[in-house]
Amino acid sequence: MMLPQQREHRFLRNSLARTSYVGVYVMMFLEISTGLAMYAQVYPDTWVAQIFNPVNLLFTEYQVHMIHHYIAWGFLLFTIIHVYLAFREDVMEESGEVSSMVSGMKFYPTDPEDIEDLYGPNKK
To answer: How far is CA 70 from CA 18, 46, 73, 81, in A?
Structure first.
């Protein structure tokens, strides 16, 4: 896991990140749905209860609460892993993603092609 990757093409996000963001969107949908279903149990005369009553018919109050609780812990776990992998990417791949968030500057390993236009032919 800590070995640097040798790759030719650089994509905006790797496949693990793209897949995990799909999971985060599903978790968001379930978190909102179970939260509104719990709200509907407390206030059964609202329009929210009319919409989310099927959730309460499928699951008990305890089950809805536990689903909501575990998804909230999933968000916390995702955040911890996300921050770790962002720092790891910054250090191992020398991409400068986190460093540029802190400093506001990003350094590239190679000079741009139009460097001679800016500094003259002696820069290279």
So the answer is: 22, 26, 5, 16
d(CA 39, CA 66): 14
- Write down the pTM of the prediction: 0.67
Delimit the domains of the chain by residue range: 15-119
pLDDT in tens, the chain (124 residues): 555 555 555 555 677 778 888 999 999 999 999 999 999 999 989 998 899 888 888 999 999 999 999 999 999 999 999 899 888 888 887 767 788 888 877 766 666 666 676 677 765 5
How would you class 40 by CB atoms within 10 Å of its CB: exposed for 0-12, middle for 13-18, buried for 19 or more? buried
CA trace torsion 59, 62, 63, 68 (10° rounding): 120
